[in-house]
Design goal:
Oligomer: single chain
Order of helices and strands: HHHHH
Largest sheet: none
Structural class: mainly alpha
Mean pLDDT: 83
Shape: elongated
Helix content: 55-70%
Length: 156
């Protein structure tokens, strides 16, 4: 087995670009949607969690689909990628979403307490997870980007 000693060659593969572009496109969609709503550009959307579509789901599906298209669907690496994608999307739609709901309840409790007593408090981030619709939209975004990148990749 020949091992490539140059880690920069990672950036020369369709699966890297499929995953990376899927994430960038999903975050750009969020930023554009935010601009339409607020009429101002907010670059925080490029690193934010939550919202439509799920960038996490988009990235892991972009990776999974591009690996499947490039290496074949029965490859052990593709099986690993589908497991990684499944866990990531489940986490986005359940665990992180629940943490966001808990943060919302805690923020309400702290605000009620703060109105009656003088206490310092830290506002918790509420938009952590995704709805199933946001996860599905991310999955669709990643699948589309990976299909296009792999199809257009030179020397396939």
């Amino acid at each position: 087995m020949i091992v490539d000693p140059n880690p920069l060659n990672l950036c020369t593969t369709p699966w890297f670009w499929s995953a990376f572009l899927s994430w960038v496109i999903a975050q750009t969609i969020k930023m554009t949607t935010g601009f339409i709503k607020t009429k101002r550009i907010d670059f925080q959307y490029l690193v934010s969690t939550g919202g439509m579509p799920s960038a996490h789901s988009s990235m892991v599906c972009g990776l999974f689909v591009s690996l499947g298209l490039a290496l074949g669907w029965s490859s052990p690496v593709v099986m690993l990628a589908v497991g990684f994608a499944s866990i990531t999307m489940f986490d986005a739609a359940s665990v992180r979403r629940s943490a966001g709901h808990q943060a919302r309840v805690l923020n309400i409790m702290i605000n009620e307490l703060f109105e009656h007593h003088k206490l310092r408090h830290v506002h918790l981030k509420e938009l952590l997870g995704h709805t199933r619709k946001e996860v599905f939209a991310g999955m669709a975004t990643g699948t589309l980007v990976a299909t296009l990148v792999t199809w257009l990749w030179p020397g396939k």
